[in-house]
Amino acid sequence: MKSGCQVADQIGEMEIMGNIIPHLWYKNITFSSGKAHFVANTLLADIVYWYRPTMIRDDSGMIVGARTKFKGDRLQKSYLAFADTYGFTKRQVKDAIDFLVEHQLLIREFRTISSSSLILNNVMYVQPVAGNVKRVMEERCNVSELASICPPITPERTTSSLSVDGLSLQEEGAPRVEEGTYTESTSKNSSENQEQHQQRAAECPMTFFKDNGFGRMGTYIQEKINSWCDSLSESLVVEAMKRAVEQGKLYWSYVDAILVKWEQLKVRDVKDARTKEFQGMVEKHSKRNVRSGTRKPVRTEMLPDWFTRESEDVQEIRDEEFEAEKAKLMEELKAYRQRGIGVEM
Fold first, then answer.
1. Residue 123 pLDDT greater than 60, yes or no
2. Global pTM?
C-alpha cells in the first residue's frame, strides 16, 4: 500500500532496528535545572532495547515464542562499551548510570564471574525498572517525582556456570574486591560500606561544587568538570575547589587556573601537587635571597692626573689675582689717609 509520498514509502520499506527514545523522556528525564539529560536518555534507550524480546517465528512466519537478546538473567555491559558505542567519555557514562540508578530507573549490580581458568571481579550488570520506565514514557512524571518501586538489589555473587567471553575487567566506579565472593553479610560490613559511600559522595566534584556555593551548575561547567576529571582525577578537581573555598574565590575560573597549572606541572595526585607547590615556594624564596644579596656595586671612576693638575693651576691663578686686588685696595686706602680725609684704619 502506497501513501502517495515517494520518500515516505521508501522510509516505510526500511527495516529500522535499534533504540527508540520517547519524546516524553526529554521532559521527564532531566537535570534539576529542567534540561534534558541526553546521556542518560541515550543509555536508558539502549538498555531498554536490549530488554525488548526478540520474537521467534516458525517457517510460516507465525510467532511461536520470544527470547532475550542477551544471555543470562541480566544484561552485562561495561562503561567502556557504552562509551565506545555512543562516543561519550567513561566519566559521562558513569555519571549517567549513577543518575538512572539514583532516580530508580535502573538497577546496577557488580558480580564476580569465574570459570575454570579465569576470575573476573566487579563485572557490571544492568536492568531497567520496568514500572518506572513505563511511567516516564506515558505520563508527565519527572524523575524527581518517581516513587521507589524497585525490587531489592541482589548482592553480588560468584557464578561459575556463566561464560566469560566478552566480559570486561575491573570497571571504573565498582567496589574493588579480591578473588572470591563480594557479599555484605554483616551489619559491620553494611555500616562500613555506608561510610565509604558517604565519603565518596563528599569527594564527588559535582557534589562539592553544589554544596560549597560555587553557584548554578550548567551543562558547560559540568562538561568542564568531567573533562578535568578525565585529564587529571576527581580528587585533584576537588582539591582545586578546596583551594578556591579557602581563598574565598568561589568561581570556576579560579579553579580552572589551578588545574591548568597542575596540568603543566604534570601533577599526578593531591600529594604530588602539594610537594611540587612546596618545592616551587622554596625555589622562589631562594631566588629572592640571591637577588637581594648580590646587588651590583656602585661604579666609581678615578680622576686622571691632568684633571688634578689643572685644578691646582686654576687655584693658584685665583690666589694670585686675589693678592693683587688686595694690594691695590691697600694702596688706595693708604692714599686716602695721606690726604687727610679722615679714613681710619
1. yes
2. 0.47
